[in-house]
Automatic annotation (TrEMBL):
Origin: domain of life: Eukaryota
UniProt protein name: Lysine ketoglutarate reductase trans-splicing-like protein
InterPro entries associated with the record: DUF707
Basic and acidic residues composition bias: residue spans: 329-341
Entry-linked Pfam families: DUF707 (PF05212)
Region (Disordered): 328-353
Length: 401
């Protein structure tokens, strides 16, 4: 009886184990499916990140980019040079120096749109930057190049000519990141800046020390035209990153998280690091040549936190003279809302042209805003890197009070 009971017990145990194993199968299948899905998503995410790094890393391995391009498969990899520069090359050289590898001494670039009417002011600017060993590019929007050859430095500069084109038009076409890849910083300045209180070498020292990827020199408070208070020089500072302003329509405080209170430079005298320019060049719209509205978005190219990597340098500053010649008669007329007061004949053709340019600029501003909003809505993978800071900044502001 006892043996029979044991046999029955053993049989029951076996059936129980078999039943338990059968019940485990669906669970194991689900678990395996979940694990496979996790592995798939992880692999896809890593691949996506690698692709982003490859596309955005201009200074990485050129071989990887070349190997991926079907259009270059006819060339041996070692002969491919994916970048260029704006350095002048001699037509001849001594035999002893022909085998030497080129040593770039000019690691920074100054590019200015120029007209012959502002020749004297540009001459002062260029002479100062040449002493700091800059490479110089002049964008001649009035077509007059011959009028510059009497300057001793003219043969050392690159001269590009296109009638009635803007700074951003020139920059989009001639300052491609692959072309300016050797330069640490790109100065993209207007021609109407007074540099009596400016030093290129001191400026470079400051932005390197402070890690400013995008910057501009502060404006003298006595400048003819000032659009944003954040650009005005602070006399007791070396540089500043934000504005504190309780007056006017724009209120700027510690809780302010973006332009024009922080993370902002204006379009008249921006300075870009190599990496920041790579991003900014892609932000420039090919057909929107006046660049209105772009200054509000440049912080997205700051290679990190725009409240830290974007700043205004106060120690060395410039005077904005507010001279506008593009589309006008070339005389020293005041820009902006005072342009009609500065001209005795409001019915002149130059004023009509300036009015048309302003209308075109305003229209381009609206188009740029629409394109940005549309791009944000269509790109589901894009996440605003600054949107998540709002709650933190609000809490910090309340704590400071």
């Amino acid at each position: 009886m006892e043996v029979l009971t044991r046999k029955k017990s053993g049989l029951s145990d076996g059936q129980g184990k078999s039943s338990f194993k059968i019940k485990q199968l669906p669970f194991m299948a689900i678990l395996c499916t979940v694990m496979l899905f996790i592995v798939y998503r992880t692999t896809k995410y890593q691949y996506h990140e690698v692709e982003i790094d490859r596309k955005w890393s201009l200074w990485g391995e050129t071989k990887g980019y070349s190997a991926a391009s079907e259009r270059l498969k006819g060339l041996p990899q070692g002969i491919i040079q994916a970048t260029s520069d704006l350095e002048l090359r001699p037509l001849w050289s001594r035999s002893s120096s022909r085998s030497k590898v080129s040593d770039y001494s000019n690691r920074n670039l100054l590019a200015i749109p120029v007209g012959i009417k502002q020749k004297q002011n540009v001459n002062v600017m260029v002479r100062m930057f040449l002493r700091a060993n800059f490479s110089i590019v002049l964008f001649h929007y009035d077509g007059n190049v011959n009028g510059w050859w009497d300057l001793e430095w003219s043969s050392k500069a690159i001269h590009l000519v296109a009638h009635n084109q803007t700074k951003w038009w020139f920059a989009k076409r001639f300052l491609h990141p692959d072309i300016v890849s050797i330069y640490d910083y790109i100065f993209l300045w207007d021609e109407d800046l007074g540099v009596e209180h400016f030093s290129p070498s001191r400026y470079l020292q400051i932005i390197k020390e402070e890690g400013l990827e995008i910057s501009q020199p502060a404006l003298d408070p006595n400048s003819t035209e000032i659009h944003h208070r954040i650009t005005v020089r602070a006399r007791n500072k070396k540089f500043h990153r934000r504005l504190y302003e309780r007056r006017g329509s724009t209120k700027c405080s510690e809780a302010s998280e973006g332009p024009p209170c922080t993370g902002f430079v204006e379009g008249m005298a921006p300075v870009f690091s190599r990496s920041a320019w790579y991003c900014a060049w892609h932000l420039i719209q090919n057909d929107l040549v006046h660049g209105w509205g772009m200054d509000m978005k440049l912080g997205y190219c700051a290679q990190g936190d725009r409240t830290k990597n974007v700043g205004i340098v106060d120690a060395v500053y410039v005077v904005h003279k507010g001279i506008q010649t593009l589309g006008g008669d070339g005389h020293d007329t005041i820009k902006g809302s005072d342009s009609r007061k500065a001209t005795k004949k409001p019915s002149s053709s130059s004023i009509d042209l300036r009015s048309e340019i302003r209308r075109q600029s305003t229209w381009e501003l609206e188009i740029f805003k629409k394109r940005w909003n549309q791009a944000v809505s269509e790109d589901r993978d894009w996440v605003d890197p600054f949107k998540g800071n709002k709650n933190f900044l609000r809490r910090r502001s309340r704590h400071n009070r």
